[in-house]
Amino acid sequence: MSQSWSEDQTLGSRTSVRDVLVDAERRLQRSGVPSPAVDAAEIVATVLGTSRSRLFLLDAVSDEHKVRIEQMLALRLSRVPLQHLTGTAPFRRMELQVGPGVFIPRPETELVAEAALRALMEGEPGSRLAVDLCAGSGAVGLSLATECPGSVVHAVERDDAALEWTRLNLTEQWGSITSVGSSMTIHHADATMVADEGGDLAALAGLVDVVVSNPPYIPDQMIPREPEVRDHEPKVALYGGPDGLDVVRGVARSAAILLRPGGVLVIEHADVQGQAAGVLGVPDVLGSLVMDEALARRTGARAGDPVFSDVVDRTDLNGLPRFTLARRIDEQ
After folding, report:
1. What are phi and psi of 111, to 5 degrees?
2. Does some domain include residue 5?
3. Full domain range(s) for residue 34
4. Distance CA 56, CA 150 (A)
5. Phi/psi at 198 (nearest 5 deg)?
6. Less Cβ crowding at N or C end of the chain, within 10 Å?
């Protein structure tokens, strides 16, 4: 029996991994989904129970797998975040568990964690104390605890839904934390009041080496363009008041209480909230903060004194303003 040259009988009734990948990538690209090749490979790898790097070792895709891939692909085409489909998000050395109800950690925040880690490493193992305010998935706090041996980390999150993911990721990373002699404690509290008298971290006033935060900073009336953010990220993790800086100001006050003299605050912000933004920028918020009567009572400083010195802004890998560092003034 002759075979037409145009007919490919080598696969029989099977569909190859390459066929599925090419089809998925093309459909994602046509729909305007960012990074279609990566997303297609992640979806197929997740369904096949492997990693992107090992897909080339596989040959055929079963009918059952094709159905599951099509279901996930349809959700991604409707702009459900890829991380909600795979259930994980990479962050530095970890794979974090994420899903609806918690903000998905971004690569830009890895630089924030790096800056906080460098500051924390200046201390001696066993005396390194850090606080992660607005912890969300726990990405930054867990990075400090796992990468800075002998550190004590407190993670603060107020949102009930996000807190479930913080706890899940702490459980997942607990072995890595204890293996380097560190510890991490989660607090269900408001980051802007957690250091006040009677707050969960009131006893840490003036003792903390590093406070780090990725707070909500989008102005209330500014709607994100990306549907993955606009339609799927929790609003409580996005919006920070009329100018986007309400939570930032609260975090700065908490840091003023918690940090020891010379301690460091690292805080993420939008790319339009850097030095050039003036009074609408995070550097100005930190640089202009002074001790009022309430802060003076909690810190032992004098009312009217500035809180932070050495306020500097840092850019991300795209050269955009991304986070601010400030040092708690060391009283003479």
Report:
1. -70, -35
2. no
3. 15-78
4. 41
5. 90, -5
6. N
Under DSSP, is residue 90 helix (H, G, I), strand (E, B) or coil?
A: strand
* Residue 138 and residue 271 in one domain: yes
Task: For residue 144, give the nearest of 156, 127, 132 by alpha carbon.
Answer: 132
CB 94 within 8 A of CB 173: yes
| Residue 21 located in a structural domain | yes
The reply to whether 44 and 162 lie within a common domain is no
The residue to which tokens 């702009």 are assigned: 79
- Give the number of residues written for the chain: 332
Pair 249, 128 in one domain: yes
Which string of DSSP letters, residue by residue, matches 66-86? HHHHHHHHHHHHTT--HHHHH
- CA-CA distance, 106 to 330, in Å (whole number)? 33
pLDDT in tens, 142-195: 999 999 999 999 999 999 999 999 999 999 999 999 999 999 999 999 999 999
Three-point CA angle 200, 90, 38, nearest 5°:
150
Average pLDDT, the chain: 93
- Contact (Cβ atoms closer than 8 angstroms) between residue 327 and residue 262: yes
pTM of the predicted model as reported, rounded to 2 decimal places = 0.90
- Among 168, 163, 143, 164, CA closest to 153: 143
DSSP letters for 264-300: EEEEE--TTSSGGGGGGSHHHHHHT-B--HHHHHHHS
Q: Quick one: 49 and 95 in the same domain?
A: no
How many domains are contained in the chain?
2
Which DSSP category does 117 fall into?
H
Query: Are 51 and 94 contained in the same domain?
Result: no
**Residue tagged 């305007």 (tokens):** 32
